Amino acid sequence: MKRQEEITFQSLADNEDIQIGYSDNDIMVVDSIQQFAEISAAHVSMNAIAICTQGRVQGIMNGQQMELHQNQVAIIPQNITVTDVMVSPDFDLKAMFLTNRILQSFLREKMNIWNDMMFVHRHHIVTMAEDEILFYTHFYDMVTLAIGRGKDNPFRTDIIQSLLRSAVLGLCGAMKQMLPSSEMDHDISSANIHFQRFLDLLHSKEVKHCTVESYASDLCISPKYLTVICKKNSGRTANEWITEHVLEDIRYYLKQTDLSIKQICDRLGFPNPSFFGKYVKDHFGMTPLDFRNS
Prior knowledge:
Blueprint: E1 3-7, H1 9-14, E2 19-23, E3 27-32, E4 39-44, E5 47-54, E6 56-61, E7 64-69, E8 72-76, E9 80-87, E10 92-98, H2 100-107, H3 111-120, E11 125-127, H4 130-149, H5 156-178, H6 190-204, H7 212-219, H8 223-234, H9 238-256, H10 261-267, H11 273-284, H12 288-293
Parallel strand pairs: 1-4
Antiparallel strand pairs: 2-3, 3-10, 4-9, 5-8, 5-10, 6-7, 6-9, 8-11
Helix pairs in contact: 3-6, 4-5, 6-8, 7-8
């Protein structure tokens, strides 16, 4: 039977079957992750950029059907659930896992492109042309050389991070070209900046079941303004964004873990199992137990 897994820096580091090319406190480069074939569901707690080097893999990411083929790149934001994973016998990939801190450091003002791609338009696959694949292959070779031959260099981490930042920026450029033409010159107004900060906060919080007022307070803006800027930038209210992500967490913990209803209730920030049960019934049309068994 395939297994489910919480994919973190530690879980990757502890798995002897995964070939780790490089790791520090914010980055992990994985050279091969073939035994992903043994996983039926995974909760990815870091931002991930993965290129399929051979074969193919398919699954459902937060309810969205995904299929990744050779020479395609999957871009997965942190705290995302992937279920119903199926892979071809020859499947393999290389991947880079990044904390939100280092990703924001790499992209800086271009972080809005990542957020729009991931959360507003929900595009998670980038197809590379042959020349682009060749570029990234050579680029990866440079990173490998820096990792292997620069162990005594006092600036080794800075060198590797600079190379990886260049690769992430190159990918970000490809992502920008996939966005609607009206968004090519992205709004950098205060409203958009606050919306991007809201998305970052929503995806970094372990407990997402909080009020709009709570998120607005964390952002030092009014709840009404937060709702207005969410509607303007995405067509959805702040509460709709929050609810969507709470429901995905509920779906994951009920379907993919053996935690008790009480444990899930506590982990997701609900005041008591009764309130949690009503919330699940209102949104899924059945009790938590019935949903788990459905």
